[in-house]
Structures are given as C-alpha cells and as structure tokens.
Amino acid sequence: MLKYIVGIESSCDETAVGIFDAAEQKLLCNVVFSQIDLHRQFGGVMPEVASRSHVEKIGLIFQKALDQVKISIDQISAIGVTTTPGLAGSLLAGVCFAKGIGIALDIPVVPINHHLGHICSGWIDEDHKILEDLQFPHLSLSMSGGHSNICLVSSPTEFKVVGKTNDDAAGEAFDKVAKLLEASYPGGPAIEKLAQYVSNHDYFNYPRNKFNRPRAGEENTPGLEDPNLSFSFSGLKTAVLYDMVKKGYFSEDLKRTYKDLDQTTKGKIASSFQWAVTDTVLQKIDYCLDIYPGVGQVFFVGGVSCNNFIRDKLSKYGKEKHVDVRFPLRRLCTDNGAMIAVATYFTLISPDYKPTPLSEIDVFQQ
Ligand code: KG4
Ligand code: ZN
Fold first, then answer.
1. pTM score above 0.85
2. Within its chain, how far is the Cα of 284 from the centroid?
3. What is the mean pLDDT of residues 262-275?
4. How far apart (Å, rounded) are the C-alpha atoms in residues 123 and 181?
5. Whose Cα sits closest to atom 23 in ligand 1?
6. Is the dihedral angle over the CA atoms 334, 338, 341, 342 positive or is it negative?
7. Alpha-carbon 303 to chain mean position
C-alpha cells in the first residue's frame, strides 16, 4: 500500500522536497531551499552555480523533510522527481539523488514533468488535502520565470499545452522590466511593490498582446495552431524599454544613463506593465472559456500567481463571469517539492501507470 510519497524538485533555482501521505491524502511537508541570494548578484539564474548548489543541498533538504514528518527513510513508498523541463545540470542533481534513494530502498522512482507539478500545485486546499470539488476538464494557466503555458487538463495526469509563449515567459518579463527599474531579482515581487506605491493605476497603457478574436464558428480551426492562445511578453518588455528611452532615462542600448529614476516614475511604469500582463491573461482566459465550453474551473499557477494584483483582477473576473477561478496556496506558487509529490501520487494511482526502469530515467531540457 502506498503511504509516504517523496517529491524532489531541482529544475531551476530551488532545491525542494515534499512528502505526501497517500493513505491520508494529505500533504505533510514542503521544504524549500531557495538559491535566490546566490543568483541575485548575476541578475538571473547562473546555471553552473545552480547545479553545484543543488548537489550541496539536496541531501540536507531531504533529511529535513524526513525529520519534519518524523519518519525514517525506509518508510518511503515511492519517490518522484522532476525530469523535464529545466536546466540540465540542475535536473541531473535531483534525478541522480532520487535514483540513489530508489536503488537503496528498492522503491519506484517516478519521472515527473515540471508542468504537471505546477498544475497539481493548485489542487491542495488550506488543510493540505486534495480539493474535494476538483473538476475535469479544467484550464491551468501556468506562468513562471521559465514558461507561460495554457494547459487543458483532462485528468489528474493528462494535460495538453494549448497555448504558450512565443518568446519570453511572463515571470521573465517581470524580471527584465524590474532590471530596467533598477529593482532587485526576482522582479515579480519588486514590480508588485512598486505598483502599489502608485495605487496600481494604468498610466501608460502599454500594448496588450495582439488579439484577433475570431467570429463565432471560426475559432480553433482543427489542425492549425490558434495564434490567439500564444503569448508574447518580449514585445511588452521592449515597449517599456522604448518608453523609458523616450522619457529620457537612458540610451536604447542601455549603455548611457541620462537621468535618475524617481520612485513615482518607477511605480507608474511597474503598474502600467502589471496591467498589460493582467489584461493579456484575462483575454486568454475569456477566449479559452468560449472555445472550451466544458471548462468550469480555471487555475492560475506558477511563480507569477503569487501576484496579489493579478489574483484580485482574476477573482473579480471569475465572479462577474461565474467561473471558478483558483490559485495555489502561496508557498506552492513558486517551485517546490510538494507539487512533485502530489503529481507522483496521481501518476502512481493512474490506471495507465507503468514503472519506468531506472536506466530510462533521463533529463530533458525542453
Ligand atoms: O515558478 P517559479 O518559482 O520558477 C520557474 O519555474 O521559473 O517562478 C519564478 C518567477 C520569477 O520570474 C519571479 O519574478 C516570478 O515568478 N514571481 C512573480 C511574483 N513572485 C514571483 N511575478 C509577479 N509577481 C510576483 N509577486
Ligand atoms: Zn516552475
């Protein structure tokens, strides 16, 4: 019988371990070591630094998780680990560790897709149990530093990416705009704070994603990728850059700075940018609900879903349109092992589950 399921996450800059109790259907712990302080000096994630830190920390974080739950290593029933997508060296650190535990204890090692992990992060309620009113199919918009995906989730282990970013991810755009505003890494929380300083107004009306809403009956032509479902956040970042050049702050190549940015201007730019991202997300949800009429629940997950302004606007939209819009617990928005443990549980109980031989468990960047 399945009991304690461990989830390992090391795809980017968090070394994380979660434990899910399959018998009680309850998440028991979520231990995360964030490398943010190590990468801040580089203004972004440095892959070599990230993988070394994972190797250094994974054993300690794993032991801390066992200690928190007060279990010994031989009580673990299965171990799941993120194998894709992510930074190759970072993924390898977690995968090698999980394989070692799998061999030592002779338990299943389950390769988990990071996107499925984020999708599952939204299914844990405040009591750390699986949501009782979870419905399928539902939509999951997953936005982080590495990806912006719209997923149509048809069962606990099956999802289809129906839309994704053509260039930068939403979180990446937050990070890059924050850099222009001389704010620290990661940019999301910094932008959110700056925008609050000017009461979250939309001052500059930055361009929204191009959106040609098709006429009824002409949506979603089978076999063709629907351009209305893809994101482009790089253009938005460039619009912010050009606006700042126009306002006389620096040269286009960023090599020359002409005048200092004051707090109010930073706030106005941050807030207008945040509005443009939010409107883009709302447009996508609205469109998806039209073309997928069977969908009653929408989850907004990933690091960007920490953002209170976006949460408020999406919740308001949900109330107006009678759509059930949900968000993960805050500590499960950014990368964590708990979401991987939950994804592992659902994978193991799926009727389609087939054990993967250890020799076939490999890492994939995309
Ligand atoms: O999911 P995550 O931890 O890692 C990836 O899988 O990439 O997401 C990190 C991203 C960063 O780009 C960060 O700026 C963004 O999530 N983020 C936010 C907020 N907090 C974190 N973006 C907007 N508002 C926030 N409050
Ligand atoms: Zn992630």
1. yes
2. 17
3. 97
4. 35
5. 188
6. negative
7. 5
